[in-house]
Every structure is written in structure tokens, then in C-alpha cells.
Amino acid sequence: MAKRDEKKRMRLDDAARAAWLYYVARNSQDEIAKKMCISRQSVQRLISLAMQENLIKFRLDHPVASCMELAQQIKDQYGLSFCKVTLSDPTSEDPALGIAEVAATRMERYFKTESSIVMALGTGREIREAVKKLPPMNCPQHKVVSLVGTLAPDGSASFNDVIMRIGDIIKAPHHPMAVPVVATSSKERDIICAQKPIQSNIELAQSADIAFIGIGEINDSPPLLTDGFITQKELNGLISAGAVGEIVGWAFDKDGVLIDGLTNSRVASVPLSQPPSYPVIGVARGNNKLQAIRGALAGQWISGLITDEATAKALIT
User: Fold this and answer.
1) Where is the Sugar-binding domain (predicted)?
2) Cα 66 to the chain's mean position, in Å?
3) Which domains does the chain have, with CATH numbers?
4) For the segment 127-175, what is each residue's pLDDT rounded down to a tens digit?
5) What is the band of 7 on the pLDDT scale with cuts at 50, 70, 90?
6) How far is CA 254 from CA 110, 217, 242, in A?
């Protein structure tokens, strides 16, 4: 009986994997066959099985055993209160693939509560895609607040800002941070953040019940540079100082220690506590983010993590 149950579980795991690659990663059946080393006919049968077993609704509804084991190992190794590991497509370069769906499901769970909550949000492609996957809701009892500035140095809005978008989707009061991600000087930052509306939003963010944040990498072409928030010279300075990642603009090294001075002296984002004073869930995946995720974990900047299986395996020592 035990062997039969184990065989069925493994079969369902394969069905879930094939269905995920087909519906979420948008692979063709031929591509799935190559990745899983099975025939195209087997792929068709696995996808059909996933439908028959009600594993597929709008999201994958089957916890793959290997992903659950990886999540537990990461929780144990890094002392996290929450970790969710999803399937991965090793050939995809989409930074939000799979993890955006999981983050959206987690956000939706909070928004479905009747008692009021405050949700703080970072920015980045992963958070943006998660917000896009939320269903329309009516949540006037909740509040969402930004942890990070929404303006580039030229005054343009950040492409990955999510506060206005999520406010429209869930019909909840939303509080943007109408400040630059990085001010031109520490004096300018202090003046801007001392304004009463900004200070109110900072205080609201610091009293949040839950936060979801992206984890940005610091490398030759990080989002901070490509999105126009810092210059090449400033990036070079951060790299020379040992920066490997950033959270809402705050740059840190491989041990999670904030970089002294440089752009950190001018970041206008909400200061994060270390360790977090409320649940802070990082949403990130990919080889290019490994050092940044490790640094965020080492520095205890996050208390939860949503990632994929390939990244999770690399994080486990």
C-alpha cells in the first residue's frame, strides 16, 4: 500500500510539473517533453491527469513534495517564519516566473480577511507581476502603503511602482511615497521626508502588518541603474564597497550589512528594521539574484521568502 501511495504521489508530482510548464511557463508540449525527458504523448497524459485530479484551477493546486522539502530546509537554515518554493523553468530568464503567482495568492489571502490590515509593498518586476495577477476585489477596510520612493531623478514615475495599480485592483486606500528613490543629497532627503504627508506614510509603513518586497541585485546592470535611479559612477562606488544587493534602494554586502555612505546616505525609502518588526516576505529568484538573496537572509532583512526550486537548491548549503 505504501509503495502504491508513493508511486501515485510521484505521478501527481510529474503531472503538476508538466501542467506548470504548460500553463504557467507557456512551454509547448515538445519543449516539456525535452525538459522532462519523456515522450510528447506522456506529456499529454500528465497534463490530462492534472486536469482530472483537479490540480489545475487558475493556479497550480498541488504542493510538490520536493518544493515543500526545500522550503522547510530554507526555513530551518535561515530561521525564517515562512518560505514557499515553486517550480522552476531553468531556461527562462523571466525574474517573476512562478513566484509572482505564489506572491499574488499570499497577498490575496491577507486581503480576504475581514479585519483591517496595512500591507506595505516594495517595488520591482516580481512585485509588479504579482499585483497584476491579483483578482479584482473590494477591500475598503485595508490600506496599502509604499516602502519606496516612486520618482526617478528626472521626476518621472517608476515603471515598477505598484501602489496605484493595486489600489485600483482591490479598491483600497493606497498611500504612495511621492519622493525620489535616491535624493540628490542627504539634506534634500531629510527635507523631503520631513514633510507631513511623507512622514505620515513612513509611520504607516513602519506599523504595517505584512510587507512584500523584491530583492534587487547589484551587478554590472542592476535595476537601480537601468531604471535610472543611480548613475554608473554611483554603481561603481557601490560595487567597490562590496554591495551585492538592495531592498527598496538600501544597498548591502554579502553579509547583509548596509553599505556605509554612498547612495545609502541619500535613500528616501522607508528604513527597514533588522530583524523585521513585522513579517517581511522577499520575492525573488534566479542565479543573478543569488548573492543578493543570500545577503538579505544573512542580514535578517526578511522573515519570509518566495522563490523557485532552482534558486532554493542553490541557497541550501
Assistant:
1) 63-316
2) 21
3) 2-52 (1.10.10), 65-315 (3.40.50.1360)
4) 999 999 998 999 999 999 999 987 777 777 777 779 989 999 999 999 9
5) confident
6) 32, 11, 7
